[in-house]
């Protein structure tokens, strides 16, 4: 394919993730988006509300038992935008695990997207997990579109929500539309750019695209009365405060276009798609570790951002998800794995959403492709066709949960060693060791405690090793150095470990212990670990 043709493919692509707290409506919104668009890599994954459970991966037994998703995959659909250039856009929605437990994957997904939709519940406003994920977006410079969902239910006022976001995270919302009707009485939107009223009509059970009618200001004032007047006043107030969309400030992460939706009624969903197409940036090239730049039309390259081991007997394999950075991907092409220099055959490239898979034949920058039986690949790895390129690794995240792992079958020690090294290399958990505990009982460190169960389950299923976990009373880690280690080791409630990447980590029982030690021994090296970068 010519580079002009690749450039066209790139230009029409948008790759994003939804960041939200559980229950804000991410699954419902995902379905609503799919309803408004034509599925490309459908794979039978999303079939309206009734099919909701099927959007949840049940890859592992554990997931099945809990009915939650551990995996993060991608959904691709075509959308013909009103403001587009005629050719449909290709939207990649990369799924973040949507449950209360947090894992390294949640963060890693955000290394694969170009924009994020921060979905908040109109009644609850900013919630803890939204905040955590938002910090990752800010750190990585990912522009954020804010969506206030559940506007069909009673909630806060638009100005209260705007103030909360401005005050708590310093992001300035720039509403593209102002809702007509308070939360709980969602009638439609005032389009701030045209001054028109977009009226929505409910469909039975919210199962269809909500019909829209457009009215001028006078007609809206007549039919909607005070609800319209308030919307106009809010819009004017926002304009006075300078809270109009500014593309440069949005891309710089300073402002956030804001939309009010009801994912359940499909209200405002089309407006969200339009905003993604109009404002979210298309995929861009990246810079390699040696400083060389790869533009999107250069030869093929991709970054692995997640590796998943199949535990289900019908899918007993390993999937690596790569985000394409440059060039055209054709299934069957042989690429090079930068970390080992070895060739990697891509015969079994798949689009994966939940448990459903479809074969992918071609893909372009911004797309996510699952590679089957990718035994050698780990998160952060680069794949390329010549010339060689290697992208910077995904940094490891600050763990908050720590457990010692012990093998209970005495003669399985060698297997245990092998399994631990493998899970460490895959980035499932961070593995910490020190002389005191010895090799037989390494300490696992993770962002979310569910990762520990993934480890014990895989130990058993793949290596036939029984293990037990012993939760440790540590809750935070700091990076330290050889000089500080002896003093730290002497302290109560502190333990020093080395991580497999060579970093020395000091674990603390709680932040008070850390604060006390920092005060007592001000010359010790205790650097915060990057939450995610
Ligand atoms: P997730 O945990 O973020 O994926 O949230 P879900 O999509 O599962 O939604 C959580 C609950 O909120 C479900 O009962 C949904 O039906 C409901 N819900 C989602 N969006 C809306 C909405 O726009 N309005 C109302 N009233 N309920 C919603």
From TrEMBL:
Keyword Protease listed: no
Domain Tr-type G as annotated: residue spans: 11-284
Binding sites annotated in the UniProt record for GTP: 95-99
InterPro entries from the UniProt entry: EF-G-like_DII (IPR053905), EFG_III/V (IPR035647), G_TR_CS (IPR031157), P-loop_NTPase (IPR027417), PrfC (IPR004548), RF3_C (IPR032090), RF3_dom_3_sf (IPR038467), RF3_GTP-bd (IPR041732)
Source organism superkingdom: Bacteria
Gene3D superfamilies registered for this protein in UniProt: P-loop containing nucleotide triphosphate hydrolases, Peptide chain release factor 3, domain III, Translation factors
Chief subcellular location: cytoplasm
Pfam families, sorted: EF-G_D2, GTP_EFTU, RF3_C
Subcellular location: Cytoplasm
Keywords: Cytoplasm, GTP-binding, Nucleotide-binding, Protein biosynthesis
UniProt xrefs under PANTHER family: PEPTIDE CHAIN RELEASE FACTOR RF3 (PTHR43556)
Protein's job: Increases the formation of ribosomal termination complexes and stimulates activities of RF-1 and RF-2. It binds guanine nucleotides and has strong preference for UGA stop codons. It may interact directly with the ribosome. The stimulation of RF-1 and RF-2 is significantly reduced by GTP and GDP, but not by GMP.
Family assignment from sequence similarity: Belongs to the TRAFAC class translation factor GTPase superfamily. Classic translation factor GTPase family. PrfC subfamily.
Name of the molecule in the record: Peptide chain release factor 3
